[in-house]
Amino acid sequence: MCEVLNIKRSSYYAWIKRPESNRKKNDKELVEHIRRVHKESRETYGIRRIKTQLNKENIACGRDKVSKLMNENNIHSRLKRKFKATTYSNHKYPVAPNLLNQDFKAEKPNEKWVGDITYIATDEGWLYLASIEDLFQKEIVGWSLGTRMTRDLVIGAMEQAITKHRPDAGLIFHSDRGVQYASYDYQELLRKNQIQQSMSRKGNCYDNACGESFFASLKKDVIYGRKFKTIAEAK
Question: Rounded mean pLDDT of the chain?
């Protein structure tokens, strides 16, 4: 090989005996930290969340470095990709205007709430979760679980939020334009409590990005990598 490459044998042996550079040592240590955080997250954390966790532990690293080392060492987020539609917007109920208009900042509690529905797989069938998030402190203020994706599911979450937090008149509640949120019973509940209803534009997932972001975190941190045998166990 040395003859083909036209190098001296002494140079080759000097190269393979050369001490490992500090950069390589640091990279090896960082890879071990990345593997640890990845394992602790049940292999659900990706580049951004691993970097954030390492920085919290005072381990200096940048996004590009974490990305490079994860790719080189075949470390990837393991996420299930089951999909079930939770929005049925082909209905004849009135659709509320988009009052939120992707303004997800709130100056005080009970000023802006957002709601959404997600699903959890079990061996007995689907379990549905409706939640309501207050955009001021990013807190879930109401939630409801059920085996059917009906208006009662979202009404239960809203009634819990109203009972616990007693919002003043004028609160904006934003959701997609699904049939559950557009139903007359749901509209009446909001009117009775002087809550302004707001709905996303058709087919625009960014209009309710906060609600979807919460569900993404919930599934990564709690649900992915687990198998629920029964609905009761999932609850």
Answer: 85
pTM for this structure?
A: 0.62
Which residues, in sequence order, are CB contacts of 190 under 8 Å at separation 6+? 158, 173, 196, 197
Exposure string over 120-145, b if 16+ CB within 10 A, otherwise e: bbbeeebbbbbbbbbbeeeeebbbbb
Lowest mean pLDDT among 104-113, 117-126, 189-198: 117-126
Helix (H) or strand (E) holding 164: helix 151-165
Q: Which residue has the higher pLDDT, 102 or 15?
A: 102
CA distance 20 to 198: 60
| Cα(201)–Cα(176) distance, integer angstroms | 8
Question: Residue 3 contacts by C-beta under 8 Å, 6 or more apart in sequence?
Answer: none
Measured distance CA(159)–CA(190) in Å, rounded: 10
Q: How far apart are the C-alpha atoms of 227 and 212, rounded to whole Å?
A: 22
Q: Within a 13 Å sphere around the CA of 109, how many CA atoms are in the beta-carbon half?
A: 10
Angle at 178 between CA 174 and CA 179, to 5 degrees: 120
Please provide the size of the chain in residues: 235
Structure tokens given for 132: 């309501």
Nearest residue to 190 (alpha-carbon basis) of 93, 120, 96:
96
**Residue 162: beta bridge partners?**
none
pLDDT at position 18 is 65
* DSSP conformational letter for 183: S
